[in-house]
UniProtKB/TrEMBL annotation:
Its EC number is 5.4.99.9. The keyword Isomerase applies. The keyword Isomerase applies. This is UDP-galactopyranose mutase. Pfam families: Amino_oxidase (PF01593). It comes from the Archaea. Residues 16-422 form the Amine oxidase domain. Keywords: Isomerase. The lineage of its organism: Archaea, Methanobacteriati, Methanobacteriota, Stenosarchaea group, Methanomicrobia.
């Protein structure tokens, strides 16, 4: 299209999936307009200075970026201008914090059998369940099953059941009854997900004994903003973007779409929508069955508390992150995920972020519980705090549950959806990357 206000494609939303869609389609020579309703680009992939905490910088949630060696970001790297792809430091290990110190969180089956946190009998039963699950996925393919349905629930102690439930919440934001087993198996690095032939699926079982996926995780130096900045600064001239412009309506016109915001009407052959898929039927008329299905997508809410420390603490002197359990609630264990991010702290100070899944109606209680738990696990923290900043966000637009999951192509020709509610593989930004690769396959053929 060559008319004024007309583009080859319009991208709705400027989070990391919308930005990477605009970059890749733009580098393929398409004229692109990206419309973002917020006053800043980046969505959930930003680093900022909280207004009430001058001098401190925090990310939007704590982040370990997965599959850096061979995953989607690596495959999208050549779209970035030279020198603009962020540098990552390796995220070495996950640890389990116990009252007497840290224990490495297992990343292989033998490592799991050595873990001291669970009773020996339960470890053997769970290891058998894991082996069965991985073998059956390798032989029969990825059947959608709940974690609860693949564990020997009647033979495991209550403590171990709570552990598995807490791990499910940590990885998907949902209970073990609702968490898909693929999220657990992929989240623990025993499979990299996606459609594969039987030979590759069987070969992947070696990951049970040698798990290189942990080694492919990293944290971008300069904060997660450096991923967003790398994309924006690589935009070619044919990619335009407007902030503070919300897309309110998308209409189908001859050979394309009319995309309306309070400021103007724009026209395009294709639309790439990167907002929440379940909100799309409110913007464009979609088939009733599809609209009903996407409404079912489940979303978790996470609370992250950033603790600015007066000085770095030896308790957090490791490269990786840790999990620990809620000690204030005996009925239900919940994992907290803590990551030291020293590179964002002012000189000679420390910074850690702690995240957990919460009930959004109980934010105040969750904040108090989270702080009390960390004070109880690492007592020296309390006296060393200089800054507290709390965030409540949806980590991903849809949790990997057993429900229907939309694909990149919608029932409307020329309308595509990207983001963390359109691809189930891996985590957040990597999931967004996978969705952009799938969109490129469909939208540029
Ligand atoms: C606590 C926490 C921990 C996390 N941990 C990790 C991690 O360890 N590893 C990892 O990879 N990821 C992690 N993530 C997730 C990751 O940050 C997000 O999944 C990712 O940034 C989502 O990108 P997105 O573009 O799909 O969605 P979003 O960032 O939500 O972007 C969507 C954008 O679309 C805009 N928009 C929506 N509707 C419209 C409209 N109608 N018109 C115009 N604009 C619109 C929105 O304003 C927004 O900017 C974490 C997130 C949190 C909160």
């Amino acid at each position: 299209m060559s008319d004024y206000n007309a583009y080859d494609a319009i991208v709705v939303g400027g989070g990391i999936s919308g930005l990477m869609s605009a970059l890749t389609l733009g580098k393929k020579g398409n004229s692109i307009l990206l419309l973002e309703k917020a006053d800043i680009l980046g969505g959930n992939c930003r680093t900022y200075e909280p207004v009430d905490c001058p001098g401190w910088r925090v990310d939007t949630g704590i982040h370990a970026i997965t599959e850096l060696i061979y995953g989607p970001l690596k495959q999208l790297k050549h779209y970035f201008d030279p020198g603009k792809f962020p540098a990552f430091r390796q995220h070495n290990d996950y640890y389990l914090r116990k009252k007497d110190g840290l224990e490495r969180f297992p990343s292989t089956l033998p490592g799991f059998l050595n873990m001291s946190a669970l009773p020996a009998k339960d470890k053997v039963i769970l290891a058998g369940d894991l082996l069965n699950t991985v073998i059956s996925r390798a032989v029969f393919g990825d059947k959608q099953k709940a974690v609860y349905d693949v564990i020997s629930k009647h033979r495991l102690s209550r403590k171990t059941m709570q552990f598995v439930d807490a791990l499910s919440y940590l990885l998907s934001g949902l209970s073990m009854e609702k968490t898909s087993v693929s999220r657990l198996v992929e989240g623990c690095g025993f499979s990299s997900g996606g459609k594969k032939g039987i030979i590759r699926r069987i070969a992947e079982m070696a990951k049970l004994f040698y798990n290189s996926d942990y080694r492919s995780q990293g944290y971008p130096l300069g904060g997660i903003q450096s991923i967003t900045d790398g994309v924006i600064s690589s935009f070619p001239k044919n990619v335009k973007h407007h902030t503070r412009e919300e897309v309110r309506q998308i209409g189908q016109v001859e050979n394309g779409f009319c995309v309306s915001t309070p400021e103007a009407d724009y026209f395009a052959d294709k639309v790439i929508y990167s907002g929440e898929v379940k909100k799309l039927p409110g913007i464009i008329e979609m088939p009733v069955k599809w609209s009903r299905q996407v409404k079912e997508l489940e979303q978790a809410t996470a609370m992250t508390i950033w603790l600015g420390l007066k000085k770095p603490m030896r308790e957090f002197n490791y490269n990786g992150s840790e999990v620990f359990c809620d000690v204030c609630d005996t009925d239900k264990e919940l994992f907290y995920w803590l990551m030291p991010v020293p590179e964002l702290a002012p000189r000679n100070k420390g910074l850690v972020g702690v995240s957990t899944i919460i009930d959004p109606k109980k934010c105040h209680d969750s904040e108090e519980k989270l702080l009390n738990t960390i004070y109880s696990m690492v007592p020296a923290v309390e006296k060393n705090i200089e800054m507290i900043h709390t965030q409540v966000m949806a980590p991903e637009k849809a949790s990997v549950s057993l429900n229907y999951f939309p694909s990149i192509k919608t029932p409307v020709k020329g309308l595509y959806v990207v983001g963390t509610d359109t691809d189930m593989r891996s985590m957040g930004i990597t999931r967004a990357g996978y969705s952009v690769l799938e969109m490129l396959k469909s939208a540029t053929n």
